[in-house]
Amino acid sequence: MNLNQRLELTWIGKSKRNKLEPRIFLEDSTLSHMNFSLKNENATTDNLIIKGDNLLSLKSLISDYSGKVKCVYIDPPYNTGSAFDEYEDGLEHSMWLSLLRERLVLIHELLSEDGSLWVSIDDNECHYLKVLIDEIFGRKNFLSTVCWQKKYAAKADSKYLSESHDFILCYAKNIDKVMINRLTKGDKQNSRYKNTDNDPRGPWKAGDTLRNEVRDYAIFPVYGPNGEEHWPSDGTSWRYTKDKFDELIKDNRVWFGKNGNARPAIKRFLSEVDTTMPVTTWWSHEDAGHNDEAKKESKALFGKGIFSTPKPERLLEKIIKIATKPGDIVLDSFAGSGTSGAVAHKLGRRWIMIELGEHCETHIVPRLKKVIDGEDQGGITKAVNWQGGGGFRYLRLAPS
Ligand SMILES: C[S@@+](CC[C@H](N)C(=O)[O-])C[C@H]1O[C@@H](n2cnc3c(N)ncnc32)[C@H](O)[C@@H]1O
Fold it and tell me: Looking at the structure, do residues 297 and 194 belong to the same domain, yes or no?
């Protein structure tokens, strides 16, 4: 496959460019918020909430932030044809593509060489968007499509198939330099390790001693503690040489079952395995939250003013942990109710959020104030032991 071959998506108005003059930002200090009384060395203060259209805002960020943003997460309107309380979600297809194209060009410029882009999207535009981002980022910089299980039950009134997932398109700014962290294994993975024989080296799990390959030098009898003889089954051989097997048995690293009669298994100790693992592309609702969870979080924060299309904090936690380290900058230019900023803040990252709608003031500002003042006990607060602290500045674009 030649990834340099250019196959372009075309649409009416694709070549039309808005002439963009960067503007300066003006701070509205009545809405900015800092809390220095809560001492927390992980809390960041140079964070921005920008009220305004994201095209001009992104353009205006270029002079200070070009090449400095580690992770861009966006959750743009999916173009479903719906009208939500806070925003319209039904543009003509080519207009939607033009809107995204212009913004993604600027986002690409803002990303650092080791940075990455994460875009939430569903079936309505996903496959067009993929081709569009390929053009801007380069096809070789495509990392993966994550499938996130946003719903855990079928929707009874679905006309055709009941949609239970969203996609997250992931791109590197530069595939050779991108930073993608492995995740620390959780309780679920660790619970598979037990200490059935009270081994002083701690919990272990049984691993296979056979290989599905016939290698003559690795076919020999192995004797269990009761003298029982074990041979590799047909078409297999041992994973180890005779000397290695003897050494492992001597070191009590081979398990013959509780009664000493079972086929030998190798003991893999938790203390000796890598405690991290690569992220997979299937994100279940148990792992990354779901839409109902996000609505509950929104209700706890805003009561009747619940936001129509929030994402769960656990979803953003996963993305931000994979794509950044503490102190890095996370940018979200379709900020909605401010989930990305709230999560980035609780994880000690710096953040920039841009939002056009009035909910920038009615939702994002109060939400982040609560996070900073240690009054938001929902979302990932308890899991990451967030205690409060830090601050943000509230900016608007100056008139041209
Ligand atoms: C799907 S919502 C994002 C929800 C968000 N992830 C959350 O967890 O709350 C998309 C947001 O993009 C905003 N938006 C749409 N067009 C925009 C534009 N041109 N500039 C800035 N924000 C825009 C909408 O107002 C809406 O709040």
Answer: no
